[in-house]
Every structure is written in C-alpha cells, then in structure tokens.
Amino acid sequence: xxxxxxxxxxxxxxxxxxxxxxxxYFITICTKNRxxxxxxxxxxxxxxxxxxxxxxxxxxxxxxxxxxxxxxRFIVMPNHIHGIISIHHHSFxxxxxxxxxxxxKHIFSHELRxxxxxxxxRPKPGSIGSIIGQFKSSCTKQIRSMGFTDFAWxxxxxxxxxxxxxxxxxxxKYIKNNPTQSSAVSHDPQTPSAAHT
Length: 197
Prior knowledge:
Blueprint: E1 2-3, E2 6-8, E3 23-30, E4 39-42, E5 45-48, H1 50-60, H2 62-65, E6 69-76, E7 80-87, E8 92-95, E9 102-105, E10 111-115, E11 118-122, H3 128-145, E12 158-162, H4 165-184
Parallel strand pairs: 2-11
Antiparallel strand pairs: 1-2, 3-7, 3-12, 4-5, 6-7, 8-9, 10-11
C-alpha cells in the first residue's frame, strides 16, 4: 500500500487485536530462505548446532528480560522455531538483552518507522512483536559475532492466538512431535491446522 510516497507494509496480525494484552500465542519464526542453521534431525530427534544452541538459550531467557512473559512448550527445529508465549499483565519491567538494565515501561500506541523506503508499524513495548523483534535481534548479533555473518531471519514471523485449552493441547502435542513429523514428511513450519481455530 502506498502512503506518503512510501510503501506501507500491511500487518499480518489479527485486525483489532492488541498483541500486548494477556493471552497465549503460538509463534513460529523461520530463518531466511529456510536455511538449516540450527541443526538436524536424526531418527526423529533434533540435534542442535552451535547456532541452534544460541537460539535455544536466548528463547529460554525471554522471561528474564520481560517480566510479564511466561514460556510454554517450544522447540528449535533445523530452520525454524515453534513456541508458545503467555502474556500476563500490561505493566512490566523490561531488561534489554544487551545491557541487562531494567527500565519500567507502560504500553502505548503504535509508532511508524521507515526502513528501506517502507513504512513499518513499530510494535508496542511488551507486545508479541516487540518481544520477538528483540529476540531475533539479540540472536542475530551473537550468531554473527561468531563468524556466521550471512545468518538472517525471515523479516516476519507467524502467530496464532490460542483461544481455548483444546487448541492449546493440540499445539503442545504438535510442537512435541514436530521432529518426528518433520523427518517423516515434507513439512511446512508455519502452524498446525488446528491452530487456525
């Protein structure tokens, strides 16, 4: 969409949904061009590479930097991550992954930023978009410092709101069985079909 002579990137989020409000979210983040950076599956078991270990560790540290976040089941696959994130409240203490300095923030409305001629909405602090953006940035910085200078993520990520316990159970099972499923068939890492519910 053209806006003020710049192309605006339309959000893939659910229209009208505040992604900083409490709830459970199923997240999938893929590497650029689905490159297998994070390891490989052998006999239905996911083995992490050094890069995969970094991604795993940074994911585990998300609640250390966002006090309103709780992690549920997750898995690092060869070229993507699946994880469930729970948001608990609106006011929160944020610790940046780089400085480890806590600052108290409140959620406020979206701002706009321009990147390479594109107008992109800036996610609210503490929202799913903000959390995943910081996670991806921190991982990228650490991985490239190890010499993997061509590492990159896909620009966006996939999310599904988990509306009820039946869907939560289905997604947990899907994540747990992902290595076995992926080694048996060609796999689209976006989401299990039940997550669209």
